[in-house]
Structure formats: structure tokens, C-alpha cells
């Protein structure tokens, strides 16, 4: 199936419903209007003989229009991180060439004069669409039936460049069949009530920003775009727009809760809040469940290379765990739930062999929605299995617990230690708001445990106090040898913790 069919079905089934609200003027397009604009965008791209279309912009209506328009034109859509330094941004656009790049006004001068990259501002793009004739949905958007490209589900739909925190960004390839497999397996067509509104605050170059468009389109839910995240703006938009659904990364959720508590405000319309894109500390989700008791929380674990979510912990599982006095049941809050139907996961040892429940190893995943393909590599993963580079284990009930990235595991004296386990103990201390644990070089043990801690507002704690707290709950070998207090943890623009930066900085402090 091709992603354009999702839009066709929406336009036919509920064309009058509002589809997307964006901009300071809060202009709203219906699904019928979105389909018409996407058809015009396809024709616009075809007239420029574009091989790809890049987007260098904050959240706006240009995201769905270009995503669907590119699909109808038979070319990939490549949203690019506008926060990159000029040199990195230009290098990625050069990799997209030949292409048309739709950009905001601020980015226009930054990306000018790149060979085979035609730069068009967002305002110019919409003005040119407004000046074209009417275009219908489907292949008609690119011209007549004789000249429109064949819509092949195996064509590349999206190119997403990874964050590149450990090297040059890789261009993850998502084909139409990967994305539609995910949507058809997780979303009910026309399943949204007419008043449902999704607040999208993750940037357009994040896989969650892509899946938000596709899932909302298929369900019939209005999208409200927040151009850039701040907790105050998020709460204000959620109140103003009567937001019912939202997705956040863990660092966002903690800051949103701070605003709700500080300003004594509520979100009565909010029904469903999913979180993912990073490890969620158990104390944060416990706090969220207490503060927002009428909200259904969903832990959605996925990766760019898997077209979004592959495992999910649903609202009922959250509530059951939260209300239980049984430590084994309560522990489920620290999981990412069970794999989705149609997705197969295995935990494998260092030799690539599956391990039994309860044993840790590396997470592998397979399924129709799994790509695992990169534009700069020869072929997708062999046998359909993709190595996530995440470590974790499955319990006897099939719940998946993540322990960190393979490169994050601390090896002390031949013992593998999970940073997440130590972070959970630290964040359980009443004075600790956030914590990050890494391994730094040690001449005797190979590595030793070190931590960066962000204290909760108006809280105080000493390094020795926190060491004793960990020592009393875990064995001494897992107690940080070094704890540094900071006002904030270093994260990239999508909220992912930059452990590499912490590791390098703490190693320098320790003189290793």
C-alpha cells in the first residue's frame, strides 16, 4: 500500500474534518483541502523535475503537504534538522541533491548556492500553490493519468537523517510499504472522534513527527503544530486548542509536569499521552500518573529504522502497575510493554544466539514495518532482522525492558552494568530530578561508574549522600565513584541524552 492512499481515504471518508492547524494565525486546512494542496504540490515538484524534496523548517502545514505531495510525485521527502550548524546543514542538503529545498526565511541565506539544490521559502511555496489550478487527489496531482508516475509501495517515501552524535549522520530509508504497514497495524480508519486534536511538538525530522501525520490522517484527527517546544507554550497550546492527544519525549514530560504544578493549571481535554524517544525514569511516569489521573499513558518504543513504534505499554497496563503493591507487577512501569502484532523481537547474546526470558542481550526486530535500510549502505539487513543496538531483556510475560545502548553498557572488572538501573535508583531520591550514568576509564577495573545529577527545584543533596543512597540499594560496585551536579543534562534537539558528551567531560574531570 502507498501512503497517498491514506490521504485519499481520509478525503473521501471525512473530507470536511479539520486536518491541520498551524501558524500564528491558527489557519486550519480540512482533509479535502490537504488532499488538494498535496496534489498541487506533486504537480509543482514534477514541473521542477525534482528528484527529492527537502524541508528545512519548523513545524507547519508544509510538513503534511510536502510529505504527501512528494509521495504523489514519486520522490522521497527529506525533512532536515534546521538546528544543525551551517556546514553540517549544507553537507546534508548536498547529499540530497538534486533536490528542491523548502525552507523558512531564516534558513534561506544559510543554504543558498548549493549545487543542484533549488531553494524556495515556505511562503513562496504556498504562494505558488495558490496560483496553480485545481488538482485532485491521487496521481491526478502530477498531471494527467498518462503522465503521472506509477505509485509503487516499494518506492522510498521518507529519508530521515540520524542525529549523528557519534559520526556522520546516516540517511535512514523508509519505503511506503513500511510506513503503511505500521499505520494499518496500529490505527483504526476513522477511529477518531470528531473533536479529537493531536498536539505535535516533536520536530518534523523526528520519526514521531512523520507517524503523527500518517496516523492522524488515517484516524481523522486534527493536528495542531507547535513550531518549537517549550513547556509553557506546550501547556498553553494544549489548553487553547482543547488537545486530546499528544506525544512527548521523556525530557519534555518532566518539564510539562513542572509547569502544571507550578502554575496550578489543568488539562481537562487531554485523554491520551504517549511518550518515547528515550528512556523514561520510573519516578517521572509515576508523578505523571498521579498528576494526570484521567489521562491514558502509552509508552511507545520504536526507532527511525522501524517506522516508529514496535512495542507498547498501554493505559490499562500503566494503571494496573501503578495501583499494585506487588513489586513484580509494579516493575512493569519500567518496561516499554509488549511487541506490537506483526512485530517479532529477539534478545540475542554476543554470538547472535537468542537467549531465554530474563537474560540480557541485544535487541533484534523483524516485521513488515521494519526497514533497517540506509541510503549510503549497500542493502537492507539480511533475513529481515534489524539489530537495534539497544540492550535489554524480555520477562516471562513478554514485557520488554531496555537497559541502554550497546555502547552505553559499563564494563567494570568484567561485569556488565546497566546505566539505567543506577539512574532509576538515583532518580528515586527525593532531591534528584534527573540523572545520567556513564562509564569512564579506570586503570584498575577497566571502567568505573560516574554520574551527572540535576537536582529537583529547591532541593539539596551532597555527593556522599547520593553515593550512600545508591550503595544502600545496589551493591558497592555499582555505586558511582564520581557524581557531578549540573543545572541540566546535555541533550540533542529531540531530547536524546548525549551520553558521549558526559562520558568525555567526566573523564577529563577524573583525569583519565
In summary, what is this structure?
This protein has 512 residues and is α/β, with parallel strands linked by helices. It has 16 helices and 25 strands. The strands form six sheets. Strands 2-1-10-9-11-12-13-14-15 form a nine-stranded mixed beta sheet, with helices on both faces.
Q: Estimate the strand proportion.
A: 25-35%
CATH architecture call of the domain at 3-228: 3-Layer(aba) Sandwich
For the termini, the CA-CA separation is 54 Å
Given helix and strand content, the structural type is alpha/beta
According to CATH, what is the topology of the domain at 3-228? Rossmann fold
Mean pLDDT: 91
**What is the strand arrangement across the widest sheet?**
2-1-10-9-11-12-13-14-15
Strands, count: 25
Largest sheet: 9 strands, mixed
CATH homologous group name of the domain at 3-228: ANL, N-terminal domain
List the uncertain runs.
134-146
- CATH domain class of the domain at 3-228: Alpha Beta
Helix content: 25-40%
Question: Per the principal axes of the C-alpha atoms, what is the gross shape?
Answer: globular
Q: How big is the Rg?
A: 23 Å
Question: How many helical elements?
Answer: 16
Task: Explain this structure.
This protein is an alpha/beta fold and 512 residues long. Among the domains are: 226 residues, Rossmann fold (3-Layer(aba) Sandwich); 102 residues, 2-Layer Sandwich (GMP Synthetase, Chain A, domain 3). 32% of the residues lie in helices and 25% in strands. It is built from 16 helices and 25 strands. α1 runs antiparallel to α2, α7 crosses α8 and α9 crosses α10. The longest helix is centred in the first third of the chain and has 17 residues. The chain starts with a helix and ends with a helix.
